[in-house]
Amino acid sequence: MVTLANAEQSQVKRATRAAYGVTLAELAGEGVPVVAVDADLTGSTTTAKFAKAGYADRLFNCGIAEQNMIDVAAGLATTGNIAFTGSFAVFGTGRAYDQIRNTVCYSDLNVKIAPTHAGVSVGPDGGSHQMLEDISLMAGLPHMRVLVPADYAAAVAAIRLAAETPGPVYVRMGRASVPAVYADGVELELGRAYTLREGSDVTIVACGVEVEQALAAADELAAEGVSAEVIDAFSVKPLDRAT
Question: What is the CATH number of the domain that holds 160?
Answer without folding.
Answer: 3.40.50.970
